[in-house]
Recover the amino acids of this structure.
């Protein structure tokens, strides 16, 4: 099973990323830090005559990494009760990706994938992060990706995710499960 | 009452924007199309020694417009069951704005504001758009902005919001209410 | 189109019921006030050898009314951010109804039905009533009932739903739509 | 710290109850199985001249147990994506309890309490159980009860909660936390 970790934080080594690494410990996986890429906001051309056209940025790097993976791990800080804008722009671009004539098998490939969401926030994330999880569910349902699991962690200052024993336990448990998949 | 409309669509004259114009018909308001601005994703520097520093983009245009307004209308297409990444980046930047030493009264000003959310989507938006509304509620609660009202419309193709009679009725009703405020 | 209105209030002529009557004005429909019936809480016997057995209460009245209807209108006050316990007990009994050997076509009949939810509450119902709507969506999805529409109204004291012009407008609009169905 | 466990299942020793016992293992607590009590649906008399009057059922047993407790553990099966009707009727009766002249300190006492919710369901409960958690949050917020923690477990057949290692881990972790409180 090939694993791709996308991190949506704007910090290096942010709490959500650390929690993701804990969940993936000992497994082989590719990491893409979205903050290091240039990903433009989608331009919605679904309803124009010409449709979408290639965009000159790094999105194809993300898309190609997805196409060679079986498990997608989205690790995002919870900014204002949802995923970071950095990650949202990547998700928004799926509307292009599933219509991109250069990559005709995106839709089919996504149907074979599983996804994990790891989100860390500071303001009651286990309650106020729930709408984010529901949105991910709707998104994965639309794309027919299996929503394998999610972990919500609580932390504010850098590195303090290690004080959230519950999230760490969940990460350890997810790690066990992922090992049985591969 | 000064009204600011922020549109999150990547299209000119998108459905959410049209619905917002319907709600604001006959009222005086300023419109900022976010797609025409350069707004960078936030860099989370809350926990660094130096804190946030000025970013060279158009965010201060948005912030200054907010500071001279009493009512904030956020009009966004529903992309993947939440606001557009374009708009999300603006919201994310609030974390900087409320700590921006150049604008010391942001927090106080926001407490005096009301907000309206107008969101239009194509896939069961009146159900699957609800998490977005919940996130806005949490956000406005945090900032102590009064969440005055929201309208969810259903449309896919450009201009078809005019077939959603329910949304148009709600816009007309909101229009009446807003007239009584000013 | 045969319409069945189930009211979950414990008051006569409660706000949610009044709003439902507004939505159904001029249409022919049957009303069952759940408070006038004896509906026991479900006893979960799904996993026993003998399974469910007939219960001596008024549930079959509700079930038989559903079986002769095409549109189910659930009108409930929002008590503690969800439907009333009175109505919840009726919903819970669906677990029995779909396995009730005396009514072998419940599952098939439900798939042909549409449902409308009308909920009225006093504490920010258009925000805090959203989880209730999501639960109804999950329930109707499971039963393959079409979730046709919902209206959330705001009122506390008896009769004050008539001050909620937005809800009344939505009821008038729903009324128009329902007329085109029949 | 005095702990009260209310179970909302209609089965003896249901999965949600077993998960609650796991979370409370080794601690001293009182258990009330709601299915063994006669709890009537609320009659909403808030707006009548005479107000609420005593109801001849077992509610005061529940209320008095709450009044002598510091931590309330609600263990409920997830029926149709929310708490059981049996438990909902108990929650609904809070509207009476906080206005019950025989128990003048209910409101004050609740503000000193913490609550834990333990919910077990069979159909993607970690996603589809989230609206239930949101409703509990709104309820506890209203009553100023601290929402201490929640656990969502997945199980259908009796006793199978023991296959949900993640829920068991969360129960063990909660158990540790509760020990530090007492």
């Amino acid at each position: 099973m090939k694993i791709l970790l996308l991190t949506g934080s704007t910090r290096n080594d942010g709490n959500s990323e650390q929690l993701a690494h804990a969940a993936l410990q000992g497994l082989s996986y590719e990491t893409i830090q979205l903050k290091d890429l240039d990903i433009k906001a989608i331009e919605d051309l679904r309803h124009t005559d010409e449709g979408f056209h290639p965009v000159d940025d790094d999105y194809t790097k993300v898309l190609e990494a997805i196409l060679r993976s079986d498990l997608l791990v989205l690790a995002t800080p919870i900014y204002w009760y949802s995923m970071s804008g950095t990650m949202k722009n990547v998700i928004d671009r799926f509307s292009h990706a599933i219509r991109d004539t250069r990559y005709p098998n995106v839709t089919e490939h996504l149907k074979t994938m599983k996804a994990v969401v790891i989100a860390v926030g500071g303001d009651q994330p286990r309650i106020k992060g729930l709408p984010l999880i529901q949105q991910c569910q709707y998104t994965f349902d639309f794309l027919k990706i299996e929503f394998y699991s999610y972990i919500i962690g609580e932390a504010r200052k850098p590195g303090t995710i290690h004080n959230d024993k519950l999230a760490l336990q969940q990460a350890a448990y997810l790690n066990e499960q992922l090992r049985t998949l591969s």
About this structure: The first helix of chain D runs from residue 15 to 24. Chain D has one domain: 3-181. Chain D is about 40% helix and 20% strand. The interface with chain A takes residues 126-127, 130, 133-134, 137, 147, 150, 165-166, 169-170, 173 of chain D (CB under 8 Å).
